Structure formats: C-alpha cells, structure tokens
UniProtKB/TrEMBL annotation, chain A:
<protein>
    <submittedName>
        <fullName>ABC transporter permease</fullName>
    </submittedName>
</protein>
<dbReference type="Pfam" id="PF12704">
    <property type="entry name" value="MacB_PCD"/>
</dbReference>
<feature type="domain" description="ABC3 transporter permease C-terminal">
    <location>
        <begin position="313"/>
        <end position="428"/>
    </location>
</feature>
<feature type="transmembrane region" description="Helical">
    <location>
        <begin position="400"/>
        <end position="424"/>
    </location>
</feature>
<feature type="domain" description="MacB-like periplasmic core">
    <location>
        <begin position="20"/>
        <end position="217"/>
    </location>
</feature>
<dbReference type="InterPro" id="IPR025857">
    <property type="entry name" value="MacB_PCD"/>
</dbReference>
<dbReference type="InterPro" id="IPR050250">
    <property type="entry name" value="Macrolide_Exporter_MacB"/>
</dbReference>
<feature type="transmembrane region" description="Helical">
    <location>
        <begin position="354"/>
        <end position="380"/>
    </location>
</feature>
<keyword id="KW-1003">Cell membrane</keyword>
From TrEMBL, chain B:
<feature type="domain" description="ABC transporter">
    <location>
        <begin position="5"/>
        <end position="235"/>
    </location>
</feature>
<dbReference type="Pfam" id="PF00005">
    <property type="entry name" value="ABC_tran"/>
</dbReference>
<dbReference type="InterPro" id="IPR027417">
    <property type="entry name" value="P-loop_NTPase"/>
</dbReference>
<keyword id="KW-0067">ATP-binding</keyword>
<dbReference type="GO" id="GO:0005524">
    <property type="term" value="F:ATP binding"/>
</dbReference>
<keyword id="KW-0813">Transport</keyword>
<dbReference type="InterPro" id="IPR017911">
    <property type="entry name" value="MacB-like_ATP-bd"/>
</dbReference>
<dbReference type="InterPro" id="IPR003593">
    <property type="entry name" value="AAA+_ATPase"/>
</dbReference>
<dbReference type="InterPro" id="IPR017871">
    <property type="entry name" value="ABC_transporter-like_CS"/>
</dbReference>
Amino acid sequence: MLTHYMDLGWRSIRKTPVLSALMVMAISIGIGITLISLNVFQLMSHNPAGERSSVLHMTQLWSQGPDSWEEYSANLTYQDTMNLRQSDIPVRSVASFRSGGAIHAEGSDAEPEMRSIRVTDSEFFAMFSVPFLYGGSWDKSVDMEAAHVVVINEDLNRTFLGGGNNVGKIIYLDVTPYQIVGIIDHWMPRPKYYDVTNGSMNFAESIYVPFSLTPHEEFPVWGNTSGWQFEPLITYNDRLLSEKTWIQFWAELPDEDAQMQFSQWLTSYVEQQQALGRFTDNTRTSWMRLLDVAEYLTDSEVVPEDNRIMIGLSALFLAVCLVNILGLLLTKFLKRAPEVGVRRAIGASRRQIFLQHMVEVSLIGLLGGVIGLVWAWFGLTTLADHLGMEEALGRLDPSMWIMTPSIALGAAMLAGMYPAWVICRTQPSVYLKSQ
Amino acid sequence: MLSMKKINKVFKTDLVETHALRDFDLQVEEGEFVAVTGPSGSGKTTFLNIAGLLEGFTQGEYTLDGVNVSRLNDNQAARIRNEKIGFIFQGFNLIPDLNLAENVEVPLRYRGFNSAERKRRVEQALEQVGLGARMKHLPSQLSGGQQQRVAIARALAGEPRFLLADEPTGNLDSLMARQVMELLEEINRNGTTIIMVTHDPELARRAQRNIQIVDGQVCDFTLYQGGDEPQAARA
Ligand SMILES: Nc1ncnc2c1ncn2[C@@H]1O[C@H](COP(=O)(O)OP(=O)(O)OP(=O)(O)O)[C@@H](O)[C@H]1O
Ligand SMILES: [Mg+2]
C-alpha cells in the first residue's frame, strides 16, 4: 500500500507541476538555510579529541600584572613554557606555536612554497593521536638538544618528494636543511583543537619542527602574540625574555590525581616566580588553570554566539516556509475532496486517506530536502569562496546526510498534518450527490 | 438481509433542523431488487447513505446481514462498505486521473488483495460490463453510459452482497439507461441484492419491488412481478 500511496502522491505532484514546484522550492530554501547554519554549528561544536578530551589539558597562567587583561591569556610566555617543561607530572607535555617559511627540496621540480609550520615537542604526535605513514616523531632527546629534524605530511611529501617513504631525506626550510624523520598521513582535526587561537577551522600544519630549535632558528611567529605591558622586541632574544604570550602548552594528565598534583606544582611554581617579582596581580587568589579540550573549545568561543542566533533565525525562516506550504496543501487537498469522497465510500478508512496524503507530503518534503542539500552545498561553497569564510567550513559535514532527510520529512509532515487531517475527515455523502 | 427500525435522521444547520427521515422502517430480503421513488427532497438519498454506512443517524436500529451496524466506528464502517456494499452514483464518480482498470482496482486495494487477485477481478468485472478492451482508457475518453458501466464494474469487483444505486441512470439518455438497467438486472439474477433510487417510473416498474418515500417515511410499497400491473399496495 505504501508504494501505491507513493505512486498516487507522485502522480498528484506531477499533475500540478507549478504548485508542486512552488512548495518544493519553498521547503528547499528553508531547509537549505537551516542546513547551512546547522552545518557550520556542527563543524564548530565538534570535539575532535573524543575520548582523550578529558585527559588533555591546556595550561594557562595569569602572568599579567594588575589592571591589565581581565581574563587568562590563551598562551604562555617563553620563559614560563621552558619552566613548565621541567615538570615530570604530566605523562606528556607539549609546547607549540605556529610559524611558517619557504619550503623546497633539492632536485624537486616544485617551486618553493610558503607553508605554515608548527614548532613543537616530540610528543605532539602521540598526544594528539597523529597517524604516521612512515617513520615517527624525533627522539625525545632532541627536545633538550636541538637538531634539524622534521616531520612532514603526506601532501607535502607528494608535492616536493614525489611521495613514498622519504624518511632520511632532506628538505629545506628557507635555507636550512632538515632531515625527515617521519611522514604523517592525512590528518585534519576540526576544529584544530590543539590551537584554536588563529583560525579554529584552518587546516593542520604540514610541517613540524622541534621547539628546542626556537632560540637558534628564531622561527617567526605566525600566531598571535599578546602583551599586557609595553615591551619593545628588537631582537628575537627580547621576545624570549619578554612577558609576551604566544606559546600553547598542553599537559596530558590521565586522572584527577595527576590533575591535582600538577595544579599544586603550578601553584608553587607561581609562588617561586612571585618571589622573583612576576605574577604581580595580587587581586587574585589563583594564577593558573587547566582546561580540558571541551572546556578549552568552549572558553575560546569556537562556536560564536552569532551562530546560535543564525540557527534560530533559519529555523524561524523554515517555519514561515512551512506555514506557506500548509496553506497551499490545504487548497490542493480540498480540491480533491470529491475524489476522497469516492474513496471513502468504496472502503477507505480515515486512516488510509490520512496516510495517502501524508505520503504525498513526505515526497514533497524529500524532494525539498534533496534540493535543500544542493542549496546548502552551493551556499557553503559560495560563502567559503567569496566571503572569506574559513575553507573547512565550506564543506558539508557527513552528519548532514542523516540530518537532511530527517529535517525534510519532519518539516513536511508538520506542514502536511493539518491539511491531511482535514481531508481525511471528508464526509463522503456530501460530495457524492453534488456531482 | 437489511432491516431498519424507526430510523430518524435530523440535519441540524445553524438556522434550521431538517427531519430527513422519520421513524423509517424497512425490511429488504436477500436477493431482492428494490426500486425507491419519491418526490425531490423526500429523503431517498439520505436513506441510501445511511443504508450504505456513509452517514450515521440520530435514532433507531439498523441491522445489515445479521449484524447490528447502528453504531460503528469509522474503521468498521469502512470495512463493511468495502467488503459487503457496492455503490453506484448518479454522477458516476470515477477518479479522473486513474484509468479504467485502476478505478476498478481502488476498492480492491483497500481490501488488501494481492496484485494477481486484483488483476483477475478487474478483468472479470470490466469484461462483465463489456469494457474489457478499454482497461487503459481514462474516464474522460468514455461516454456517460460507458462511465457508468465502469462504476458498476468497480462496485462489482469486490463481489458485494449488496448494491446501492442512487439514480444510476439519471444522467443518461433512455437507450443507455436501458442498457445499465439490463446490467443491473443481470447482476441481481446472479444473487446480489440491489436497492436503486430512481425518478424514472418505467425503470422502477422493472424492479421486483417498489417503495415510495414521502417526507422521510416509507409511504407505499408495491410488488411488481414480471412487469405486470401493480398487484398490491399497502400503506
Ligand atoms: N447534509 C445535509 N444538511 C442539511 N440538510 C440536508 C443534508 N442532506 C440532505 N438534507 C435535507 O434532507 C432532506 C432529504 O434530502 P435527500 O437528499 O435525502 O432528498 P432526495 O429524496 O434524495 O431528493 P432528490 O430526489 O432531489 O435527490 C432534504 O430536505 C434536504 O434538504
Ligand atoms: Mg437524492
């Protein structure tokens, strides 16, 4: 019977092509707009750390003086970073910041390219579950004694070295040769949760070099540098000694015990530093905090308030479309009352008439959903291409494949329920004699 | 077969109450062919709608095929309409978007027959009304008489116990009307009980039994046999 209802519904849709097209368009635009805002929300509110979300802790310090910033800086100073790396309480700890430079390889046809680089510690890859194709991270000893080693991603490997296992080969950052120790597979956490401070939806970097090289190589900082007091940075060393904050510090703390211990360690560290004349904001009682990934993403407002408002507005818009469709359906169905009268007379129950019309409405909804998906795709691409939305946001999240039919069906049924109910209450005798 | 006792039907609109049927009593036996006549507005259609479970009534008791059908819910009524009753209307009431075979198939689908059974019955019914060769035509491509024959085929396909016809020849010229009448007579000979409302005294005379409704009541019924003159008239 269901296939029969679909057949009837489809005939009815084709019988009034203009009206049907109007309804499908209205619903598709409503759905398209809803999908765009949901898609953006979905991508932004995703927590890519999964199970490890509660284990990884972003460490933040209130190193600013009184009467300056009113919140924690997302980043740490170089001196604090170097000191925190001394603690052996975290199972793993990783300092990192975003840099960049010109990449090329000897004997490669590829032109040198400017690429962003992550300067970090050896355990970055284990900490954030980065998959390796070949090789692995550099040795832990390199974190103390700098060496010119590098981990690159598969894309870069293909572009500059033609792909394959190129561990041991050399690539150049600007003019300095680095030996490749590992090649990572495609890896694109969204949001880029290990550092959301400059573009939470940007792609992960394609090159990773040891943090210990920072003072030697004087890597430029492509991320944010913030300062709460006036400090001219003439030389790179000025930066290293300054109170400027620009480095993310992650600690892996597997349980509450470890978190407690590390907090205590940080508290006593701050006390030492206060003895040296830093951490001068005495209005505070605590100068440090640990945020797990979920807290970090919330605190960094990866999902802006605007986005929630957008979802509300698009739902409202969809509702307006639905009210329109409700009216159109009511007219269309009532025109069919004589036919329904006949069907009722020759044995259709109200339920069967109701179902028949709900199936027709669902077909309209699904058609609207498919076209809505096209609108959404088109809209997202346009937003990404022309309005400077971050590239990763211009993609349809796989969840939309489930979301779209549910919204489309739900919306259509909502709009169709009343018209279908009205028509199924048709009193057959009224229409039989009047023909 | 059909028994109505003191049926009352009152239509209430904002302004007036119409007493369409008043203490309506009627008994129809299995296999009868009953013609119903009466002035316009006397309640013939109302009676037929109630008999066919298309409408409820205000008071009284209605037994159909040994079952009290006075107070049925929508589902039960739909089921009985589907299985036991065939309808033929003055306006044919075919569904314009469906071809002949599909029109005849509609009640069979609600009945839940499988497609082989539906096909068999559709072909047989259309064959019986002489339209077996036109299964794929649309109703609009047929003459009025042909359309009415399709409606009869639709009513027949479910093999109902009981055929209700409201002025089935009202929209037809006399030749076509006679053909339709002959078809109904043949159906009746095969054992189906028929109640037919008509304004045409000639057609009415061909029925086994005539009843007249005046002002919502059965006022007179006459038994005709073999087209002879009325033999008896009771009040
Ligand atoms: N749905 C309704 N609402 C109100 N009054 C109605 C309704 N249906 C019928 N009536 C009234 O009930 C009475 C009987 O109507 P009915 O249709 O049964 O007459 P009829 O004998 O079939 O007439 P005709 O020969 O003209 O078809 C009429 O007075 C009519 O106005
Ligand atoms: Mg009538």
